[in-house]
Structures are given as C-alpha cells and as structure tokens.
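Encode chain A's predicted structure.
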Amino acid sequence: MSNLIIDDKAIEYIQQHIRDESAKAMRVFIGGGGCCSRLEITPVEKALAGDVTYERRGVTIHVDKALVESVSSIEIGFDEKRGLLINLFELS
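Encoded structure for chain A:
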C-alpha cells in the first residue's frame, strides 16, 4: 500500500470542495488514455470497487487501486497560484 501525505492547505482546499459539491470524499485516479493519461481528483459519494481508502484529518480520499500498486508514495499539496499538486514517487 502506498503512503499518502497531504499538507494542511490541501486538506483545507479538499474539505471546501467536498462541502461545495455536497460530496463525502475525494477520489484520485488516472484519467484520459493512451498518450494523454493524467492524474485527476474529483468529489465522489463513495469509493469504486478496488479503491484504497485513506482518512486524513477528517477527509476521506479514495485512490484507484492500480495507482496505489504502482507507486510508493502519493503527496498532495496546495499552491495558491497552481491549486492542488499531486506528486507520485515510484516504487524502487
């Protein structure tokens, strides 16, 4: 299982988005396809089958199982100008 690290500003941003969308959690997954794959994060009501669920400071984050299995660590941060930033650290 990957380690999930979320900074305080990202927690606040995610909490606000969950409230704004009347959702229960956020989900991180690989979207797109082919040469245009990208990480996405979206408010959701529940996890999808196989998702790995993390709880951090009252925030629930569901992460796609394939993503969890392919990295050693996922870090979510927040930058005032760039928004949420997701960094993946590969398994060594």
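The radius of gyration is 13 Å.
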